[in-house]
Amino acid sequence: MVPMLIGGSLNVLGYGLATLGPALGVAWIFASVINGTARQPEAKPAMMSTAFIGFAVVEALALFGFVLAFVAQ
């Protein structure tokens, strides 16, 4: 019996798993903004500016992971 050969790069699989963190981070950020807006609608502008800063930081981490997946090959 011939053993299965794994083709491709495991880096891509690692990046696929690493995208779960930023996805959950973005979901939690905007879920908190929706919750806060429902409780205090007048505070929406302040919460949205903070949410966009948090979104940028979380997405930057995802992009770093994407770049490192190709650098490590």
Automatic annotation (TrEMBL):
Name of the featured protein: ATP synthase subunit c
Keywords: ATP synthesis, Cell membrane, CF(0), Hydrogen ion transport, Ion transport, Lipid-binding, Membrane, Transmembrane, Transmembrane helix, Transport
Residues flagged as site, Reversibly protonated during proton transport: E59
GO cellular component, one term: plasma membrane
Gene giving rise to this polypeptide: atpE
Main localization, broad class: membrane
HAMAP family found in the cross-reference section: ATP_synth_c_bact
Keyword Lyase: no
